[in-house]
Recover the amino acids of this structure.
């Protein structure tokens, strides 16, 4: 087995707080639980197409507002939607800074142009990584194996030289199937704990 050279991270739920389910609940006319919203969100064709880069922001806003029966104009919804990528979790910058001298750091995220803009311009997330790849840029989403292969190609790294962290079990399983060491984690402390267990920190 090759020594680990690259640490590859999901963003939302790992280093970035995403408040979409909670904030969307406040916009809905009917009452749905967070579990119900998350279930519907996961099946929403508009969010999927936007994450694949196949919808413009304008078309996404119009379709989402209509389909979810929201009482605000699409342009207002898009401003709300972009803000759902809230902030970096406490300790994220410090942990990544401590890792940078020993590893190449990269991000692989199911995202979209609005959240990617916010992460880049407002939160400074992309400056923390050597390589940062979003689904909307390459037209595929995790857990599609081709997304991981695209990341390995961009990094010029074999699978066994990469360790991957994500909060979604299916994404972890897909990475593992390609020979990447992959772990499900929650937040900064989840990453830190796993790195300690793997004797990388």
């Amino acid at each position: 087995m090759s020594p680990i050279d690259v640490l590859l991270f999901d963003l939302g739920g790992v280093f970035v707080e995403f408040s979409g389910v909670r904030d969307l609940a406040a916009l809905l006319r009917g009452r749905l639980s967070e579990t119900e919203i998350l279930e519907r969100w996961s099946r929403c064709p508009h969010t999927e197409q936007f994450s694949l880069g196949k919808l413009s922001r304008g078309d996404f806003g119009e379709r989402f507002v209509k389909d979810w029966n929201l009482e605000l104009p699409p342009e207002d919804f898009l401003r709300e939607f972009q803000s759902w990528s809230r902030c970096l979790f406490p300790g994220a910058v410090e942990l990544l800074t401590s890792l940078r001298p020993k590893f190449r750091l990269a991000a692989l995220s199911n995202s979209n142009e609005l959240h990617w803009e916010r992460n880049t311009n407002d939160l400074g997330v992309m400056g923390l990584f050597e390589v940062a790849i979003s689904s909307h840029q390459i037209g595929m989403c995790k857990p599609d194996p081709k997304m991981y292969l695209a990341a390995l190609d961009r990094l010029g790294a074999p699978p066994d030289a990469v360790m991957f962290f994500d909060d979604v079990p299916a994404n972890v399983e897909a990475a593992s199937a390609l020979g990447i060491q992959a772990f499900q984690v929650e937040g900064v402390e989840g990453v830190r704990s796993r790195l300690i267990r793997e004797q990388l920190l």
